[in-house]
Amino acid sequence: MAADSKPAEAGHWGKDIRSDLHVAIEPRDSGGIELGLESRVAPYYGEAILAQTRQVLEALGVKNAKVSIHDEGALPYVIAARLETAARRAGLSNNNKALPDKIAPPPASTKDRLRRSRLYLPGSEPKYAINAGLHGSDAIILDLEDSVHPAEKDAARILARNTLRAVSFGDCERMVRINQLPLGLEDLAEIIPEAPDLILIPKVEHPGQVTQVDNMIAELKVRHQINRPIWLMPILESGTGVESAASIAAASENVVALTIGLEDYTADLGVVKTAEGRESQYARSRLVNAARAAGVQAIDSVYSDVADMEGLRRWGENSRALGFEGMGCIHPAQIPVIHSAFAPSSAEIEKAQKVVGAYEEAQQRGIAVVSLGSKMIDLPVVQRALKLVARAKQMGLA
Amino acid sequence: MTERVELAHNAAQRRVPTMVNGKPQIPYLGVGKYQPRGRKQAPPVRSSKDYPENGDKRVPNLETALRKCGLRDGMVVSNHHHLRDGDKVALLTLDAAANIGVKDLLWFPSASFPSQQSAIDLMEKGVIHHIEGSMNGPLGDYCTQGRMRGMGVLRSHGGRWQAIQDGEVHIDIAVIAAPTADAFGNADGSHGKSACGSLGFALADSTYADHVIVVTDNLVPFPCVPWQIQGNNADYVVEVESIGDPTKIVSGTTQITRSPDRLRIAEFVARFLRDAGIMKNGFSFQAGAGGIALAFVDYLRRMMKEDGVKARFVRGGSTKYLVELLQEGLTDYILDGQTFDLGGVQSIANDPRHVATSPFTSYNYHGKGNFASMVDAVVLGATEVDVNFNANVVTHSDGRLLHGIGGWQNCLFSGCSILAVPSFRDRIPVIVDEVTTLTGPGEMIDVVVTERGIAINPLRKDLLDAVKGSKLPIRPIQDIKADVEQICGGKPARPKLGDRPVAVVKWVDGTVLDTVWQVG
Fold this sequence. Notes:
Largest sheet of chain A: 8 strands, parallel, barrel
Order of helices and strands of chain A: EEEHEHEEHEHEHEHHEHHEHEHHEEH
CATH superfamily of the largest domain in chain B: Glutaconate Coenzyme A-transferase
Shape of chain A: elongated
CATH architecture of the largest domain in chain B: 3-Layer(aba) Sandwich
Oligomer: heterodimer
Radius of gyration of chain A: 24 Å
Largest interface: A-B, 23 and 21 residues
CATH class of the largest domain in chain A: Alpha Beta
CATH class of the largest domain in chain B: Alpha Beta
Radius of gyration of chain B: 23 Å
Number of strands of chain B: 29
Number of strands of chain A: 14
Helix content of chain B: 10-25%
Shape of chain B: globular
CATH topology of the largest domain in chain B: Glutaconate Coenzyme A-transferase
CATH topology of the largest domain in chain A: TIM Barrel
Number of domains of chain B: 2
Largest sheet of chain B: 8 strands, mixed
Strand order of the largest sheet of chain B: 18-17-16-15-19-22-26-27
Distance between the termini of chain A: 66 Å
């Protein structure tokens, strides 16, 4: 038994736990692997779990240990993550990894893709991930920050890494919210090799934090031969952060959007967060303006009352009117409401299409002045119409 | 169980016993292939001169009533599950029989519930020989482990009526729990402290059993109005303190699922009915009280309103969600088989458009037709569905008894039978190569709706054509199965079933569709 090894556990089990498992490892000096398994899916996958466990332990270099597993129907990539976490905690893994099979990655994300909705998934809770991509959000976020207990950060990081390898999220952009720096840098080391599409950086207050993340990602991309973009979305969550919005947005070419965390922002101001959001109107408008100046998207916070769909719709419509292009969501039921709130109305689309039509006709005829009926149309109106029609097409509305 | 069991392959290629509890069986021949002959059974001739002229059939207690009915060893005693898990009458009946000292009863409940698990003690003591009726939880395990002396027989609600009518099961004494009754034996379920809605499950027993005992905790002076059970069929009336625990008889309100995956399935089902053109003026549907079914009703209701469509009738298991359809004028009638929540109970008591039905009207094979085949679409659940659309509802994937058939088999005769199921539960695949226990033949199952897409039975070309061009995610069932196997890490191991039959699954016509084998 290595001098620094010790018994360790990872994961969860119990009557109310689903799709997870609990692993207890007791390092030993000799005697090989002694394996105990209780599983609610034993009749179907008991043999498969035992075989996988032996494979994973071998990959990790664990040679002598008692390993006890209580399985609540965890999928193979979760089993691998929990075993690796327990082995690392036990000081047995020697920094080896047990990576699950990798599914074909989705096409790379683009800088100005739709980001109306991004569904938060707690990073250390496996049961939500497997079907998260079915619900039609533009993105999913594997969250390593606020939804993860400080003692579970290592487990969440490994689980998120395996999730990126093994779970298909369909057309969703795959985002990861890392922890506040410097802890967030450890997250990057684990996550970036799996090429997520975007990293959310929490509690950003100055552009240097963005640069630090950006540099580390660049380095990891080279080391792991990743040839697709990994975008950044800084989250502003304080008065200082909001005041620095413009420089943060401009800190890297990889920044595609700015967003705001209203729980922390209102706490920083010492004001109550309301359903109308008047207290954050200034910060949100400032963020929109800074984002526009840097040519990136402005994305709003989440609406935290899952039962109040009417409130969510009002919030979303107001948010779009302020200039935001999307917001976060914490339950799949919020997705269609958000999409409809951020969708241009059919009247808006129709009008914009007319303007675009007139513009294209003028272009063809080589006329500089665009007119619709008897009215002359200013260039900014044309540009807005072009953008709106393009977005409506992305949303499948035009 | 000591008898040696001969097995035969039936038309579904399942091995089934040819003899069950000493009675010869007909292996399943295929849907609509079995043609029973002969005359229906009838109870003995009775004469009104033998009953009190003042109509007062009360006796002091259940034990007295059972003695007067001539209870003796080996008789068939029936109870019913309209009080669901709150029922006290079944155990009162069986305990009274134990006190009398009889042995080897065949207990014939329309369904058993977890609260009745002390029936296991009565089987151990020899009071009950075996159970023919649904068994789950501890009772299901007792049967599946091969500890019951006879073979379990699982019948649909319609199949139970069929077995009573054609004499497959002859009920000696039926004991009917009545939320309201008079001393003559007229009884009803819509009023009283133990109100439960329809008593339809007990109707066949009331007319075919040799003896009928009505047990009530709400005795009213004659007449009990309305009456669903006719006192003219009753021998004795027994008054007790309580026939059931009201909190378990009906739920306060039934709850729509909050699981996003299940909501997605429910929405797909509703959209399927709309886009396939089934949801149109004058249509009909049936949905149960499970979380997905309730959510489906809620989605369909919104779509009916949007499109200005009204149903002629809906079939329950009624809940407040069906009642809302009625009250909003979105359906003309609820034809109700059982009543699941308070909203349903209040409605059936007060609204003449909310009608109590029975397995005879709805499901019975020996009727001159039944309602089930007149319903345009039905939404059901399942534990497993295979690539040939065969489905299992009675056992877990590992072969242990899970629940009864209920009206499930009977409902498959609707115009479009839809199974609304997740494609896997935790790591247990629902879409599989072959079901563990066949409960519904694939030719009867038209559509399987999962969170990963909708599979239409290739036999239903009309449905495939009807949804062409819609935005619904229609996929071959094999593709959904492939997804599930990719996610779960390969095919599940086949369950290790024993070679001894412990129960049989009957098809609606009384033939033997499949076998439940000893496990563990």
